[in-house]
Amino acid sequence: MKPDYKISVFINCPFDQEYSPIFQSLVFTVIDCGYIARCAREISDSGEVRIDKIVKIISGCKYGIHDISRTDLDKKNKLPRFNMPLELGIFLGAKRFGKSEQKKKICLILDSTPFRYQSFISDIAGQDIQAHNNKDTDVIKVVRNWLRSTPGRDTIPGGTEILKRYRQFTAELPVICERLRLTIDEMVFSDYINIISEWLKENPSFPQ
Fold first, then answer.
1. How far is C-alpha 43 from the geometric centre of its chain's CA atoms?
2. Residue 208 domain-assigned?
């Protein structure tokens, strides 16, 4: 089944090991708030060009979270990474030049510290850039507040509550993975999404 455009969130961020704690908390927050988390890691079709995959996912998402904090030079080639700004540009281009539902796109731009982006991507000055300070605690609250401020869910738990639930989830994750005969290191994006979704069914934000 095709994911619902109106509640789909494209996550554009680094995928390295160092960023993993922020990525995992970000994905959990999106799903716990009642939205669908999507990113380039969800598909692995070798027969399709990577940029085409990304464009397809972006076109299917009303919302986008773009973390432009990873500007360090690569240790091997001494060059910065441009994937995140590129995907942000595609998202903003779809919003500006797209038709019908594409014009309704809404995005959140994240950086590690306030105003740092002005030194390397000043063209987005005027956008409401939010800082996560490289902390999962901060990214949870920032993403939750952004989703609450957009048209959609009226009953979203507060950031403190989501953080508490995320801590509970991560504490139980090793046992869940063991039950699934899966190590945490072996988890791919689809595994992680499914595990979160099943956990949330057993631990709903607003128990009936």
1. 15
2. no
CATH number of the domain residue 79 falls in: 3.40.50.2300
Whether 59 contacts 50, CB under 8 Å: no
CA distance 156 to 16: 29
Tokens representing 98? 């797209």
Tens of pLDDT along 158-190? 999 999 999 999 999 999 999 999 999 999 999
This prediction has a pTM of 0.89
Domains in the chain: how many in total? 1
Spatial separation of the C-alpha atoms in residues 98 and 112, rounded to whole Å: 30
Q: How many Cβ atoms are within 10 Å of 139's Cβ, its own excluded?
A: 25
Dihedral (C-alpha) 74, 79, 85, 87: value to the nearest 10 degrees?
-70
C-alpha–C-alpha distance, residues 95 and 101, integer Å: 9
pLDDT band at 145 (very low <50, low <70, confident <90, very high): very high
